[in-house]
Amino acid sequence: MVQLLNEIDTYTIILLLMLAAMLTLLIFSMLPRKAEQQEKPSIKTLIRCVDGHEVERDFSKGDYVGKKVECPQCGKEATIIAIYSKQALQPRKP
Question: Which of 61, 69, 87, 89 is 20–30 Å from 37 (CA)?
């Protein structure tokens, strides 16, 4: 009878250790990984000057397509022709 209790205790301990290991792996697999997190895309504004050249700059509050602004390069009149998001491409690790 004593030997039977020792065997049950051994199997119970092994079972509990395996359960604890599986729960630990499950918790760590659910945590977000920094390498897999995507960067926040940057919002860009495309400006076309009256001279014909185009300049890309960061979006600023109040920008809209068709808005008349000053050209950042030459200071002449320019128009916002596009607003878009731009995200850096990062290779994924297998």
Answer: 61
